[in-house]
Amino acid sequence: MHILFLILILLAAVLGPGLWVRRTMKRYSNPPDRYAVSGGEAARRLLDVHGLHSVHTEATEAGDHYAPDDKAVRLSQENFASHSLTAIVIAAHEVGHALQDATGYAPLHLRSRLVRWVGPIEKLGAGLLMATPVIVAVTRTPLAGGLMIMGGMLTLGAGVLVHFLTLPTELDASFKRALPMLDKHDVLIKGDERHARTLLRAAAMTYVAASLMSLLNIARWWAILRR
Questions:
Q1: Sheet (strand 65-67) strand order
Q2: Fewest Cβ atoms closer than 10 Å to its Cβ: which of 72, 75, 111, 151?
Q3: Who's near 182: CB < 8 A, 6+ residues apart?
Q4: Which residues contact 33 (CB under 8 A, 6 or more apart)?
Q5: How far is the C-alpha of 205 from the C-alpha of 210, rounded, in Å?
Q6: What is the pLDDT of residues 127-175, one digit of tens each?
């Protein structure tokens, strides 16, 4: 009974933030014509105000993000074209990342390097996990268990590290850059400031949810391993 209760608490902690984020984004996506400019146009204007004329704005199917290597603010098709509060705030948030890049914000560059390393590290971990049964069968060595632990930590741990390093970067882009930017340039309609703060908090919570999910995966894998 206690285990079931603990599982329910963990599921609520992991799934709750994601559900709240989707609800918040959807809530402020209406009305879709609240602002005179679209999310894509707002991003372009804010970039130009800060002299970032070489940074591109693009619609994408890969979700809202800033690509440091390509110097591009990419918004989902919906946010790029919509004139909603959600679209404007998400655009400002991604411009915040472009400002981080332009000013040499170290955590952003560290995260970008880590993201490039995560793929090979996860492949190495997955390779170790797949090879462990073969190594056990051939060598019958007790070291095989250590290889399995190492493989699991490489596969799951790399993602956790990226998520936790991403969170402070997201908070900086939201509350130290996007919010002041929206206020300074009078982008928001009067009364929308507190709603913008809620949206930016929701954007940060996506990474909290991702971090919790990664931790849950590690805990589940460790429990299976100990059986």
A1: 56-60, 72-76, 65-67
A2: 72
A3: 88, 89, 92, 188, 193, 196
A4: 83, 84
A5: 8
A6: 555 555 555 555 565 555 555 555 555 565 666 666 677 788 888 999 9
Q: How far apart are CA 59 and CA 78, in angstroms?
A: 8
Strand partners, 74: 58, 65
User: Given the structure tokens 């591109």, which residue do they identify?
Assistant: 56
How far is 15 from 18, CA to CA, in rounded Å? 5
Name the residue among 100, 85, 107 with its Cα closest to residue 197: 85
Per the CB < 8 A criterion, the answer to whether 163 and 141 are in contact is: no
Q: Which residue has the tokens 């060598």?
A: 139
Alpha-carbon dihedral 159, 164, 167, 169, rounded to 10 degrees? -90
Note the pLDDT of residue 55.
98
Q: CA-CA distance, 33 to 171, in Å (whole number)? A: 27
What is the amino acid identity at position 47? L
CB 58 within 8 A of CB 74: yes
